[in-house]
Amino acid sequence: MAILDILVYPDSRLKQVSRPVERFDEALRAFIQDLEETMRAGPGGVGIAAPQVGRFERMVIVDVSSKLKIKHHNRLILINPVITSQEGTAVGREGCLSVPDYTGNVARAKFITLQAQDEFGRERVYQMERYEARAVQHEMDHLDGLLFLDRLVGRRDLFRRQIVESSKPQDTG
Length: 173
Ligand SMILES: [Zn+2]
Description:
The chain is α+β, with helices and mostly antiparallel strands. Helix content is 17%, strand content 33%. Strands 1, 2, 3, 4, 5 and 6 form a 6-stranded antiparallel β-sheet that branches. Strand 3 and strand 4 (99-117) form a beta hairpin. It starts with 25 loop residues before the first helix and ends in a 13-residue tail after the last strand.
């Protein structure tokens, strides 16, 4: 296992569109372990996408189980994910491992239905809502070369992080 280097804005590679995962082999699963370890090493990390560590393939990990009192699926490995339906919108604050100094307000679908493969290539369908749905949408944006900075509700919706982290740090993905 290894903690991988994270690409940080304005690295232009973060704008790259990732290609589908085709081989579900041991090498892929070893990479996913490293990706998860990298996510957990970050402060408040609730998600990570493969292109954030320079691997331009369509896979993300989301785990919002550290948030109490919300509905979630524990740790999710989502490979070649596609949102097949969505409903409602809500604005919420987002942070990103690749944008360490800022957070911002972004509008996302409240409810989503998602198709994805797991690390063995098996097809799965998930229903997600609110915070978990937001985290997944944030990570999926990375697969298309988008950051939360590209989706800010308005120019006043970008916030510099405190130098001294409060006792409740912002989540990052
Ligand atoms: Zn991010």
